[in-house]
Specification:
The chain is α+β, with helices and mostly antiparallel strands and 438 residues long. The strands form 4 sheets. An 8-stranded mixed beta sheet has the order 1-2-6-3-7-17-8-16, with helices on both faces. Strands 10, 11, 12, 13 and 14 form a 5-stranded antiparallel beta sheet that branches. It has a two-stranded antiparallel sheet with strand order 4-5. The chain starts with a helix and ends with a helix.
Length: 438
């Protein structure tokens, strides 16, 4: 009753000083805070209300996965959901993409939320009771969770439209696993149709369910595939030995740590939340080189993982020197990078702002600091970040007590669906707060 009284008084500024406020500015500030609290309570309530529906949607996506470039039925389901919310929907940017547009009741900033759509080809057994019905195709990376969260945010904000100051774009992006979809959406004129001021996205992963993790700058290591071309004349034993020497010459970690042991990302002593994490300041190769011959020449290929962008230009000279030091200078024809996608780089200023917002709304522990860079994985969300200031989050999906480990692209990948509730609630609130800031 007291809250209702104060809320009504917010619309009667002439009597506010009588309520214990020193001036109108102080009263207005108090009312703004009160109104924000009411909005975020409404977001939490709406999230809980639609949670079971979102779980069912996620399970439908999981049972009917579609590979990159084949997301036709997934597109239709997303399109219908957004249209039912009364949104404008565009499907003509690229492939099976969907863009939902929510225009608030007031003019303001423009914010984009991105969710990826495609599934993986894999032969792992599916641990879920709602198993994939498509042979050797699974949502083994969590994109079914991402889509459910994206649709959930869309519904929560649509039902709180009066609190939306500006425009929200919901980008459902195909072909992430092939690192193609984001780039092609941009190449096909996405930003001529929408022009967001900032963009956000997430990836569910093996940290504890409900945990959000983020850091400014690089979230992943830089991944480059290197190719070494050699003249014929070396034995298989010599080539294997040379590969080991090259890997050893490039190797750099802190205090003998093993950042390739990806399961350690949740270890409190070695993992991402520890300032002394093993997942920073490293360079290592994928291990054994892929060795093959073509046109009477030998080729050695492997991936390298480097955390420091300033060191990338040093890798090829280091490989050349390792070959020369091994006595094979006369056999060397070339060393080159043959693949190297951009990595996710979070905007520093924006990352500080969103971390502060989420911690203020949902407690200091709502967002965990991330002190490292994850090897092996990456995300083509990086292409959006090249054009638009953006932040990419990790969202926890593991629940050890339930035996669920959300290690992406791994056997028995399984996600606690409570992560959907956390994602919808937290990021709906975040978007509202960012829209309402000058």
């Amino acid at each position: 009753m007291k809250r209702l009284t104060i809320t009504l008084l917010c619309f009667a500024s002439s009597v506010l000083p009588a309520q214990g406020f020193n001036n109108k500015k102080e009263a207005t500030s108090h009312c703004r805070i009160l109104n924000e609290q009411i909005v975020h309570q409404a977001i939490q309530k709406e999230t809980d209300k639609i949670f079971n529906k979102l779980v069912n949607i996620r399970r439908d996506f999981h049972e009917n996965p579609e590979l990159a470039g084949m997301e036709k039925q997934t597109q239709e389901k997303i399109k219908k959901y957004l249209l039912d919310l009364g949104m404008e929907v565009q499907t003509d940017t690229y492939g099976h993409s969907v863009v939902g547009i929510l225009k608030g009741d007031k003019k303001g900033r423009k914010i984009a939320w991105r969710s990826d759509m495609d599934a993986l080809p894999n032969e792992y057994s599916d641990p879920e009771t709602f198993k994939s019905t498509i042979k050797e195709v699974q949502h083994g990376c969590g994109h079914d969770i991402h889509m459910a969260i994206g649709l959930g945010i869309a519904e929560v904000l649509a039902k709180n439209k009066k609190s939306v100051k500006g425009t929200v774009y919901f980008i459902f992006q195909p072909e992430e696993e092939t690192f193609k979809g984001a780039k092609e959406m941009l190449n096909n004129g996405l930003l001529s149709k929408i022009n967001p001021d900032e963009i956000y996205g997430l990836h569910v992963t093996a940290i504890p369910v409900g945990q959000i993790m983020v850091k400014s700058n690089e979230m992943f290591a830089y991944q480059k595939r290197i190719r070494i071309q050699l003249k014929n004349g070396l034995s298989e034993e010599e080539l294997n030995s040379l590969g080991k020497k090259i890997s050893h010459s490039l190797f750099r970690t802190s205090n003998g740590s093993k950042p390739w042991e990806i399961q350690s990302i949740v270890d409190p002593e070695a993992g991402l939340t520890n300032p002394d994490t093993i997942f920073k300041d490293y360079l290592f190769t994928d291990g054994k080189f892929n060795i093959y011959s073509k046109n009477n020449e030998f080729f050695l290929e492997t991936y390298v993982y480097e955390t420091n962008s300033f060191n990338l230009d040093k890798i090829i000279p280091a490989v050349q020197k390792a070959i020369e030091d091994s006595g094979y200078k006369d056999h060397l024809l070339s060393v080159s990078f043959v693949q190297g996608n951009p990595t996710v780089v979070n905007d520093e200023k924006l990352t500080r702002s969103v971390t502060e917002i989420l911690q203020n709304l949902y407690g200091k522990n709502a967002v965990a600091p991330d002190y490292g860079q994850v090897p092996f994985f990456n995300d083509d969300f990086s292409y959006f970040q090249q054009k638009i200031p953006g932040v990419y989050f990790f969202l926890g999906g593991s629940n050890v007590e339930k035996g669920m480990i959300a290690m992406n692209h791994a056997p028995n990948f399984q996600v606690d669906e409570e992560s959907i509730r956390t994602g919808v609630k937290s990021f709906s609130s975040l978007i509202i707060e960012r829209l309402n800031r000058n």
